[in-house]
Write a structure and sequence with these properties.
391 residues; alpha/beta; OB fold (Dihydrolipoamide Acetyltransferase, E2P); Rossmann fold; Ribonucleotide Reductase Protein R1, domain 1; 5-stranded mixed beta barrel; two-stranded antiparallel ribbon; 13 strands; 19% strand
Length: 391
């Protein structure tokens, strides 16, 4: 009876989603497009040569182009900005606003939103003669995608960026010790999508002294491990920016991830060398800021690679990210293979090898605490997931 009730709820959610899609389709497209800036109005957007599709993506494009009804209309393009459902796509000979092909949209509705183009996606772009807009025919295979779940049991993933090489997790410093929970879950998500993690600590000038700053950096480094770069920056003092820039070499695509108020836009403005992105005030009582980034977009950094920015995210739920957890804490996963019980939670069970190595100092207490909290959350999330939804 419980499974039938859950399946009924899932069906109701799918019906509601289709209702929202029909409502969205009724929006006056011409009015939306008229409200958007033209394709050539944006500064700092990357050129086609700043981006590098993989050989597999190029091969997939050539196959699609050969099968197209009008091959001369097909272009290999990359989505560099998303505004209200109309992607901005850069190709070798043009940058155009695009819409989705009818057949492509039908395919998406059948399979969910997994194939909808995200910032960073390489696509087959049709440019019919006499049209001022392009048409996205399909999304080419991704080498990876940074995704989060919209909810714990709805079975919907949100792709924040595709084909990223580095993910910069931005965390603001303050007078209190730096919080580690969000950095830990960002690490799991980053490693799950196959990207290289970097932690950027902003507002270093807010620490009381050099010793307090060094303590925060040391705690974060213990959490993420010696293989992950941790950079402390201060936009007010202009420090740390060149080190961050070196984390995104030319020819690669990085993504900046952080909560609203973490200083993402201020950091990007410093990297760009001018005030290109809006910044908002931060509330004193809880250090939270306004959502100042309103579109998902890419910008080209002078002397470096390309960065994808996204609106500040309040939450990063973990559902089905066991691979990322194992990659983030490999020494704990290895130790767990020696536990007496296969379902050991490493809390107080007898014969727990993880606890034994923790007591012996072979596992760092900071990393163990983060792993335990995330693993417990993921167990609860897996139990609450709809039975007809696979992570």
């Amino acid at each position: 009876m419980g499974k039938k009730r859950q399946a009924g709820k899932a069906q109701a959610r799918r019906s509601e989603r289709r209702r929202r899609e029909r409502k969205a389709a009724s929006v006056d497209v011409a009015a939306v497009l008229a409200d958007l800036p033209p394709a050539d109005a944006y500064d700092d957007v990357p050129a086609f040569g700043d981006l590098a599709p993989t050989p597999e993506q190029r091969a997939a494009f050539e196959g699609a182009r050969a099968a197209a009804e009008n091959p001369d209309e097909a272009r290999l393009g990359c989505v560099i900005r998303l505004d209200r459902g109309f992607p901005l796509v850069v190709a070798s000979d043009r940058t155009v606003r695009a819409e989705h092909a009818v057949g492509f949209a039908k395919q998406d509705r059948e399979k969910g939103d997994a194939l909808l183009p995200a910032v960073g996606d390489w696509v087959v772009l049709l440019c019919p003669a006499g049209h001022d807009m392009g048409v996205i025919e399909r999304v080419l295979p991704r080498k990876g995608a940074f995704e989060r779940w919209r909810g714990k049991s709805r079975g919907e993933r949100q792709t924040l960026a595709a084909n990223v090489d580095e993910v910069l997790t931005v965390q603001a410093l303050g007078p209190d010790p730096v919080p580690l929970a969000r950095i830990a879950r960002s690490l799991v998500l980053t490693l799950d999508c196959g990207a290289k993690p970097v932690v950027v600590l902003t507002k270093a000038d807010r620490k009381g002294d050099a010793a307090a700053l060094a303590s925060d950096v040391e705690r974060v480094q213990r959490l993420v491990g010696p293989g992950v770069r941790v950079v402390a920056t201060s936009s007010a003092l202009g420090s740390g920016l060149e080190e961050v820039r070196s984390c995104i070499p030319a020819g690669t695509v990085g993504m900046i991830l952080g909560a609203s108020g973490a200083g993402k836009s201020t950091l990007l403005n410093g990297l760009l060398g001018h005030e290109a992105l809006a910044t908002g005030a931060v509330r004193e009582r809880d250090d939270a800021g306004r959502h100042t980034t309103v579109a998902r977009m890419m910008v080209k950094l002078p002397g470096a690679g390309v960065v994808a920015d996204a609106p500040g995210l309040r939450s990063l739920p973990l559902v089905g990210h066991e691979r990322g957890l194992a990659r983030a804490f490999p020494e704990i996963v290895r130790a767990a293979r020696g536990c007496r019980f296969n379902d050991c939670t490493h809390a107080r069970e007898p014969g727990c090898e993880v606890l034994a190595q923790l007591a012996a100092g072979e596992i760092d207490a900071v990393r163990f605490e983060a792993f335990s909290a995330l693993a417990a959350e993921m167990r609860v999330s897996a139990q609450s997931l709809d039975p007809d939804v696979a992570p």
